[in-house]
Design brief:
The complex is a heterodimer.
Chain A lengths: L2 H15 L19 H20 L3 H14 L4 H30 L3 H14 L4 H10 L5 E5 L6 H9 L5 H7 L13 E5 L60 H11 L3 H14 L4 H20 L3 H14 L6 H25 L3 H14 L4 H22 L1
Antiparallel strand pairs in A: 1-2
Helix pairs in contact in A: 1-15, 2-3, 3-4, 4-5, 4-6, 5-6, 7-8, 9-10, 9-11, 10-11, 11-12, 12-13, 13-14, 14-15
Chain B lengths: L4 H18 L25 E3 L3 E5 L6 H8 L6 H8 L9 E5 L8 E2 L2 E3 L3 E4 L1 E3 L7 E3 H13 L3 E2 L2 H7 L10 E8 L3 H13 L4 E4 L13 H9 L3 E4 L15 H23 L5 E3 L10 H6 L4 E3 L18 E2 L6 H5 L5 E3 L4
Parallel strand pairs in B: 6-10, 6-15, 7-8, 9-10, 10-11, 11-12, 13-14
Antiparallel strand pairs in B: 1-2, 2-3, 4-5, 5-16
Helix pairs in contact in B: 2-3, 4-6
The chains are: A mainly alpha, B alpha/beta.
Chain lengths: 397, 346
């Protein structure tokens, strides 16, 4: 090999080594001191892979556990220890952010959102006392459906209808502070609360995702709608929307029903197709739009889980166009973009390692398209191009 | 002239390794180190690797969560830790088993949702069902067997209270059993079944009822039940609705609460040697105005009969219990046993 070529390649390697977080490399572990490294290594390696996969998937708490398992097997693995420290730092940061968001939501009086944030903090760190105490003492409200009593309604019948369990009538009774053996007055409103562990069975009330825009509750089609929204929550009837005239709504449109069912079974593509057809006939219809947003949100989440970030970004972009503040859509969109960038950047690295320089450059260019300030991608492209040029010159000779 | 392929590969690999660092750990893991040209040889393997957090071991023939808990944790009663962490109850020989040595999720909250603990409430039992509140002994036995065969773990109410203070992780399929009022039928029908299955329970007694006839347990019998490992707690003096009544003055209400909440404490101390720390609201009824009184008389947890399970972060003076009625089928009973609320918390 000629010295010039060697120098070029060495420079490439050196240049590329700059920038980045060196602590987290999935490099080889250091064998446990003095004891049979060969028996330990495949075992530790499996957990290391698991830890890395969980980390990539954003499951930080479980990733931290896996790193601890790696360290149980190979206690002197400095890289695993550094990786554990890094994951824990990410967890701590995530908890701080969620606590902060939760407190802000509380300050705005949006208990349901605060509750979710505190819960999310606990999901990251299930021994976090601040999140736990905030949940326990500050967030009383749960989601509920508003039900307008009709002639003939009984608590048992309502419990059967909403929870699939007649005996849950006690919960409706208690929530509404009713007298013993109450007679329900038609036209009055009852709160039908969410009961942990008991999904609402009503097909019009899919539990997740809860729509941020509350639909107008009607006797035949109740949907999760806060009865007394605090400041910051969407009003039950948005300004400008016509108040529902009829007490009893006609049978639900078959396309809409089809879309709802598809959402319930998480078949979001079908749901969107059906609701689009429905909206083509009734452009701007609120029920249709509410459902479309639910379907887009569900689709985006499942795409995210399947690591189809481009698709997820498309769904989320569409959703945030319909409603910029829908649930955590804008945060999700940001997350999807970040993960997409990471994925392409990593793919570039893989190509580079496989000596596919052109493909690597293409991946990093994609990264730059998405994030023009991505210094590592830019530097890597420069280096790879130089390397490529050098190789091409050698080939000409 | 071309660069020699092997030299180029080496250089690229060097670059690759460096790039990997730049990728912030999301890149592919590198292979485990191995001396060039040498196939891996299985070295001597210890029975277990141990750290403060975990034990990594390998199952022997016939190992179960119980046997592993006995070998590596403080005893078979910690089998739930093995079972909940691995998701397995039996293991195949040589199977790798990761056993947590300490609680890993005291709040029971995961990115997919959170744990809820059902607390079941029984009243009277009899040979035959009678009315809503006298449950047939055969139905009770059937329900308890259902819990056993379906992997539910009956935990004490005291452990549950610690769970709501973030001090104790509970098994994922925890259930608590409570019996209200202090019926003699507890001793006749429930106690033998619970003893056979190794289940514990809490009796909420209202003290005016204690020793008040053949249908009621007396203090001697309550002491006997306590000695057998059952927990006795308060259900007020007279079993009256504890909310302030219409027209009741503040002074009247304070006197009434003193009687309902403090007098049982004196009887508990005299007859059982300790105060009660946990209260069951008569008829399950309470309101915000009552809570300061409950606290004032030393109760740290209190329960309604709202039919739902309890998250760890439930308000401690507003816990929920689900009453089991005589007319319930086994299917109805099972509807009260949800132990997880799914919710996307990522």
């Amino acid at each position: 090999m000629r010295p010039a070529a060697r120098g070029l390649l060495a420079a490439a390697a050196f240049g590329l080594a700059l920038g980045g977080c060196a602590s987290l490399g999935g490099g080889p572990s250091e064998p446990g001191a003095g004891s049979a490294p060969i028996a330990r290594d495949p075992l530790a390696a499996r957990h290391r892979q698991q830890a890395e996969a969980l980390e990539r998937d954003g499951q930080l708490r479980r990733a931290a556990e896996e790193w601890k398992i790696v360290l149980t097997i190979t206690p002197n693995d400095a890289k695993a220890r550094a990786a554990l420290g890094a994951v824990q730092a990410r967890i701590d940061q995530g908890v701080i952010e969620r606590l902060d968001e939760g407190r802000k939501a509380l300050a705005r009086g949006v208990q349901v959102e605060a509750r979710r944030k505190f819960l999310a903090a606990l999901a990251l760190d299930p021994s976090n006392r601040a999140a736990f105490e905030a949940l326990q003492s500050n967030t009383r409200e749960v989601e509920f459906i508003a039900h307008t009593v009709r002639a003939g309604d009984t608590l048992s019948a309502l419990a059967q209808r909403y929870y699939g369990d007649r005996s849950r009538s006690e919960v409706i009774w208690e929530t509404n502070q009713l007298p013993p053996n109450p007679r329900l007055q038609p036209g009055t409103t009852l709160k039908i609360p969410e009961i942990p562990g008991v999904p609402f069975v009503h097909p019009e009330a899919p539990r997740r995702p809860a729509p941020a825009v509350a639909a107008v509750p009607t006797p035949d089609m109740p949907r999760p709608a806060p009865v007394a929204p605090g400041p910051g929550t969407a009003p039950a009837t948005p300004p400008g929307a016509p108040a529902p005239k009829e007490e009893y709504t006609p049978e639900v449109n078959p396309l809409l029903a089809e879309a709802r069912e598809a959402v319930d079974r998480s078949d979001f593509a079908d749901a969107i197709a059906a609701v689009d057809k429905y909206l083509a006939g009734k452009p701007g219809d609120r029920d249709g739009l509410t459902l479309k947003k639910q379907a887009l949100y569900g689709q985006a989440k499942s795409q995210m889980d399947a690591r189809q970030y481009t698709e997820s970004i498309q769904s989320l972009t569409q959703l945030t166009r319909l409603q910029p503040d829908y649930e955590d859509a804008s945060a999700l969109l940001k997350q999807a973009r970040t993960r997409n960038i990471e994925m392409h950047y990593t793919q570039g690295v893989r190509f580079y390692r496989e000596e596919k320089l052109k493909e690597a450059i293409a991946e990093w260019r994609l990264v730059l398209d998405m994030d023009p300030g991505h210094a590592n991608a830019r530097r890597n492209i420069d280096q790879a191009e130089k390397l490529l040029k050098g190789l091409e010159q050698r080939m000409k000779k | 002239m071309l660069i020699g392929p092997s030299a180029r590969r080496r250089a690229l690999l060097l670059g690759g390794a460096a790039l990997l660092l730049g990728a912030c750990a999301s890149a592919t893991p590198a292979p485990a180190p191995r001396a060039a040209g040498e196939p891996p040889k299985p070295g001597p393997r210890p029975a277990a690797y141990q750290s403060d957090d975990f034990i990594v071991t390998f199952a022997q023939a016939g190992d179960t969560a119980e046997s592993l808990a006995e070998r590596y944790l403080s005893g078979a009663d910690k089998a739930w830790m093995v079972e909940d962490y691995t998701g397995l109850r039996v293991f195949t020989p040589d199977q790798e088993v990761v056993i947590p040595r300490r609680p890993w999720n005291p709040a029971g909250v995961t990115p997919g949702g959170y744990q809820i603990v059902p607390i079941l409430t029984y009243h009277n039992l009899g040979e035959q069902a009678k009315g809503r509140l006298v449950l047939a002994a055969s139905s009770f036995r059937e329900q308890m067997r259902y819990l056993k065969t379906n992997g539910y773990r009956v935990v004490s109410l005291a452990d549950f209270v610690e769970f709501t203070r973030l001090n104790r992780q509970l098994p994922q399929r925890s259930v608590v059993l409570t019996f209200d009022d202090g019926y003699h039928s507890f001793k006749d029908f429930a106690y033998p079944v619970l003893k056979e299955l190794g289940f514990t329970a809490t009796l909420f007694i209202y003290t005016d009822w204690v020793g008040a006839g053949r249908a009621a347990l007396n203090w001697n019998e309550l002491r006997e039940m306590a000695a057998a490992g059952f927990d006795i707690q308060a259900h007020t003096k007279t079993h009256a609705d504890l909310r302030r009544a219409q027209g009741e003055s503040e002074a009247q209400y304070a006197r009434r609460m003193q009687a309902e909440l403090e007098q049982p404490q004196e009887l508990f101390t005299k007859n059982l040697g300790h105060r009660s720390q946990i209260l069951a609201y008569p008829y399950g009824r309470w309101d915000e105005g009552l809570l300061p009184k409950v606290k004032e008389y030393g109760y740290i947890a209190a329960f309604s009969v709202r039919r739902q399970g309890n998250a760890s972060f439930v308000r401690s003076l507003a816990g929920h219990r689900s009453q089991i009625y005589s007319e319930m089928t086994l299917d109805d009973f099972v509807k009260n046993l949800n132990v997880f609320q799914e919710e996307n918390l990522r």
